[in-house]
User: What shape does this take?
Amino acid sequence: MGKRWISKNLKKMEPDPFGELREKIRHMSNVINLSSGDPDFPTPSHIVEAAYRALQDGYTHYTLTSGLPELKEEIAQYQRKFHMNLDPEGEILVTPGSQQALFLTLTSILNNADEVLIPDPSYTVYSPIIKYLGAKPIIFPLNRENNFHIDLPTLEKKISPKTKALIICSPNNPTGTVFSDADLETVAAIAIENELLVISDEIYSEFVWKGKHKSIATYPGMKNRTVVIVSFSKTFSMTGWRLGYLIANQELTQMMGGLQANMVICPAGFVQRAGLAALQGSWEPVTLMAQEYEKRVDYVVQRLNALKGISCRKPEGAFYVWVDVSALCPSSIDFCNDLLEKKALITMAGKYFGQQGEGFVRLALVKPMDVLTEALDRMDSYINGLDI
Ligand SMILES: Cc1ncc(COP(=O)(O)O)c(C=O)c1O
Assistant: This one.
């Protein structure tokens, strides 16, 4: 009966793969969950204390839709680290999480039948939002042979007169690839030549294991045609606080601010004050988390590569390990389901991130070392039990 009221566009949205998984494991015990990218570290205490203080100090009302001026000022200061020179009042919109920033951006630019280029594999949320808006996600495969970097001829072939925007994510979820200068120059050239907007998801910019994070917005001619998506969720282990922001040219920022006013009015004031404390306070907890993630990455990659029939590279950034299991099972979904059923170990099937992800599984390293050790013991015992 409920279906009667559901819009055509909402019906176009694929079901959230995490939803199905959550349902499946609700009654299972002794499960190790490496499926979702929610860090195990507590939010650093000075950030929590700033939120308490803000509640006591009366940050319990609406703020400006675009965010507290002192927070936008501090964000502009922080972004200098990546050579971004921002007008805090005109070019930053604070949002309740970066997912809201993605949603606002796509909602603000897309008309029916517009096309948006999205990498394959990529974060699971881009395609459903685009479909929901009646627009068309156009998949451009990343180069599997070249560690999922961008292949210019493949990308060029996908451009049409209807292409409006292109999404990139670096460091990439799920592959851990950090786009090189060559990748970013390719994207910039294509965007300029074809008048495209680039949506650059940079939420893992503090977790780079090889090289340095660079934003495409800093390439010549790109600042005004890029929307940069940033989050407090992973950097400060603040997923549940719902705080992120976008950086865009003044016109877009203003339009998206108008839309946000009609959706949520503003992000919570005390949460924004906590975000301010995160940026202004000690960065030692972030450094320690990054060091711990890299330790986990090194350990897990080494253990996985010692197992028969599977292989993985060290990711260049982010805290995911992208494992090739194609020699063991052609279907990543079947592999993950079987591993869950037999060893209570939850991983994410690569296919959920796109066709190019088939044959891979993603492990999110959001558990302490002893749990990861147990997870790898289970993987070892699972593979030993396979008839190969
Ligand atoms: C690539 C990417 N972008 C955006 C998000 C959304 O993050 P949040 O809304 O918590 O800022 C995630 C979450 O996992 C992600 O992996």
